[in-house]
Structures are given as C-alpha cells and as structure tokens.
Amino acid sequence: MIRHLARAVAAAAFGVLAVAGARAETESPRHGGSLEIGTVYVTLSALSWDPADFNWKLNHDAGLVYEQLFAGDLSKSVRNGGRHRFVSDAWLPSDAIRGELAESWEWKNDPPRVEIQLRQGVMWPDKPGVMARRELVADDIVHSYNRLDRSPKKQPFYFEHVAKVEATGRHAVVFTFKDYYAEWDQRFGWGYYSAIQPREVVEAGPASWRNVTGTGPYRLVDHVPGNSNVYVRNDGYWGSEAIGGKTHRLPFVERITYRTIKDEATQISSLRTGKLDILETIRWQNVESLKKSAPQLKWNRWLAMSGTFLAMRVDIDGPFKDVRVRRALNMAVNKEEIVKAYYDGNAELFGYPMHPDYEGYFEPLEKMPDSVKELFRYDPAKAKKLLAEAGYPKGFSFKVQVCSCNADHMDLLPLVAAYLEQVGVKIEIQPMEYGAFLSAMSTRTMTAGYFMNSGHTSPTTTIRKSFVSKQLWNPAGWADPAFDARMEEVYRTRDEAKRQELLRAMTRDILDHAPNLWLPSPYIYTAWWPWVKNYGGELRAGAVRPGPIYARIWVDQDLKKKMGF
Asked: Which CATH code is given to the segment(s) 2-280+529-562?
C-alpha cells in the first residue's frame, strides 16, 4: 500500500551526498554584497517582533538585531575542526558557549548566583523616532529580564528558579537563584526568551518591526509579511572575527534577505536559478534532481531536530484515556516501511523524544525495554486485540489537525490514516494555516488528534516541554505529578552524568506510556552556492538563532559573476 502511495509524493531516489569540507575558511574575507536565504523556516513569516510575546521564532527573525548575553562559539564547529555541527534547534553544549554581550561570567554559591561582566563600549544605534545612540548598560539587562518575567504571555514557570536580577555596577549584572538550575545559562542567556531590548523600543511600541533596534550586526529595514525580512549592516557594530591570523570587523555582507516561500517547488527553483544563495531545508525527494541540475551546490545532511508525531489528547474524555488504545495505534502503523518506502531510507526509525546527537542522553531503540520496542514494530493483529480489550472492537473515528505549512506532513498524514483504517480507526484530516494551528494548541482548543513537529530544543527541555503538566508544547495534555517531580530532580542535579541517567529513565517511561503516535525522523538537507564563504551548513548558534552565523558569512562576488549569476 505505502509503496504505491509513496510514488505519488516522492521524487527521484536519493543520490550520493556531496558533503561540505570540514576545514576552516582560508580565503580572505570580503565586505559587501548581499545574501538571499531560504531559512530553515522558509514557509513561515515572522510571528512577532516583541520578546514579551514569548514567541518561539523571535530569535530567528530578530536575532540579527537583538543580541543576548551568550551565543554559540562557532570556532568549535566541525567546519573549523571542532566537534559541533550547530544544527540543533536550541542546544549549546557547555564547551561551545561564548560571551556575546557578556564579556565574562562566574558561578558562585551562598546564595547560588551568576555574576556577569558586560562588554564595555557596545552601543545601541541611533534610531530616529525611537532612541538616540547610547551605550548598553547593566540596567538594560535587568529591564529586559523583568519585562519578560512579568509578561502575561510568559511560559509557565519559565523563570521560577530566579530569585532576583540586579545591576551591581554600570556593566555588572547578578542573577541570583533560589537553587541550582541545570538550564540556568539557556533560560536567560542564549535561549528562546533571552533577547536584550532597550526600554526605548518598548516605549515606542515593541510589536512594530519599524521600531526594532538592537546592538546586533544588522538593522531591520523592511518586513513584508508572507514575503521577506530585509536587514542591512550595522556600521557601528562592536564585533570582530579572527580569520587567517587577522582580525576583521563584522558583519561582512552588506544586505541580508530572508525569503518566505510557502510553495516547495518555488523554493527549489529559486535555489536552482541562484535567486537564493542558501536554502536551509530541502526534503530528500528534491536532492537528486538538484544535484543533476545544479551540480556545483554544496550540501549538508542532518537528522531533523524536531520529532514527528500524532499527539493523542489524554486530557479530554475519549478513547485516548486508555493506554491500550494509544499503544494499539502505534502498533497499527508500519513505521519501518515508512522509513524504507516513504522516505526511501532517508529517515531514522527512532529519533524522538531524545535526539541521537545528544550524546550521553540518547539511548538507542535496541537498548530500550521490550515494551518500548513493541511500539515500533508493525503488528496490526495485536493492535486490533488491544482495541477490542479497550472496548473498541469496531474501531472509532477522530479528527486530526495538521499544519498546511509542512509539505512532509501533508504527504505523510494520509499514509498514517491509511494504516489506521486497516484496524478500524478512521481520521478526519483538518489542514490549518500555521497561525491558527499554533493558536489551537496554545488555547487547548485543538481536536483529539494533533499532528505536528516539536523541536527537541535541548536534552532537558525536550522532555520537560512536551510531557510535564501544563506546558504549552504538551499537545497530548500529559500530566503525571510523579513524572513532574522527576523533572524537577533533573533540574536540581549538578552532575551531568547523573542528569543523563535520570533523563534516559524518563524517556523510557514516556515512550512506554505512548501519549503520542511516534513516527520516524527524516533527514533534511541544506544547500548553498560556492560563492557563499565561511559557511558549512550551520543553522543555529543559540535557540533558533542563525544571526551570528550569517554575520560571519561573506560572498565571493567575483566567483558568483564568473558562474553566470
């Protein structure tokens, strides 16, 4: 069945991957030129420009303008001879963090606190009608934190571990904690909700893109919803980069444009014709044709940093209250065949909720208990038996919402539906635009089934945000006080090896309870033209934040012209 359906949605077979070299750039940087990017969120326009909206995507759109205390240390990238690929949606290993606005920091006890010294001479640029040029000071950090903490849209409990934040000098800030917290650096330093914003922007109106101004390498000069974001170089930017033994002022590229392109065919043709310099997210179906039509493209292949699943709501009355039903639906879907036939091998059977890149935290399927392994084996006979035991011998029907912005999901969900129908379970698919889709989850008005991607974020957050009670990104509505208490223990545990052990056990437990129909994780491809220099397919240098990466790219305009573009 799936082989026939997959041919209708899949393109040519996967070709040999042209992997980008893992060496640091040796050419001399060049300033100027422009960069057109189809980012990893190429189908999604900016959702908000106000950090206090607690919008997960803000660092992606405003991260070239608003800086943070910490960022990813790109000198530790694979391209530069390091260990890290910088593709994770929101994980920076402890040895891959550098100060951005923070020049130095030190952890101290009694009480537990982090003392931060800010860089001096970092300037907010002049923004007519918003603010005059002035220096960044400690009060800006305190103001930004307090505004986030007091926001009515704040993620529940997000800053619960912080006792107070205070400026102890013009360039000195102290974060005092109630207790040790394992994610202290992510939460206020380089995470989703860590942008440092001047109070003048708040007074002018933080929701308007026209008022956005920050200490970052670029200025936002245009935003057309559904079309583009345009950024131009901030000539007063403080940052620099050592390349080839010389120090160079950042950023290199004069103008950067994010293109919003909802149609997948248009994304591919835009890359092929050079209208895009970089396309960060390409499904495997398009790789072979691109390699043939544009053989000079460079490539990076990475396992999706978000899990694919069908959440089954356990917080409302219905069949999903019964674990036998949830397990039955998992057994009814031939996941191995999806990997082989639908993805043509370009996927991993088991890559969520813990990502294989999270060394020490991830436990492969073969090491899981038999009860977990069973959920990944196709067994429609046992699925029917479990449904009958739960009181549904003839099956049942339910509605499933899915985002029309995700081409893979729009193709994959009908295949899942076909499998479920073989055991008597029928689903009604309801495609939604992203804004409405996200709103349904945030207001808990979604249907009994919710088909989505959810970012792994980090080894601790991937479990907390999706399975702890009352978390926004917990679409199944899973709630278990004992599980919540185990999560708190993880956060209070200083020893990383012990945290890893605790999280491996929690991952086994949540897999076994099956609040989701677990699905394979696909491989994604990033491609770019050879004139894009100092780049190796890195995607994020913080939580969904590519800004520091783009600031270090330069364009070889002579090569681009020589290649006919």
From this structure: 3.40.190.10
Tell me which residue has tokens 């103008």.
255
Tokens in use for 401?
A: 């919402």
Q: Is 69 helix (H, G, I), strand (E, B) or coil?
A: coil
Q: Give DSSP secondary structure letters for 482-544.
A: HHHHHHHHHHH---HHHHHHHHHHHHHHHHHH-SEEE-PEEEEEEEE-TTEES-SS---SSTT
Cα separation of 179 and 182, whole Å? Answer: 10
Superfamily of domain 306-522: Dipeptide-binding Protein; Domain 3 (3.10.105.10)
Write out pLDDT tens, residues 495-537: 999 999 999 999 999 999 999 999 999 999 999 999 999 999 9
Q: Is the peptide bond before 414 cis (omega within 30 degrees of 0)?
A: no
Q: For the segment 260-275, what is each residue's pLDDT rounded down to a tens digit?
A: 999 999 999 999 999 9
For residues 59 and 353, give the distance between their C-alpha atoms in angstroms, rounded to a whole number: 23
Phi, psi of 77 (to 5 degrees): -75, 160
Kindly report the length of the chain. 565
The CA-to-CA distance between both ends of the chain, in Å, stands at 44
DSSP state of 180: -
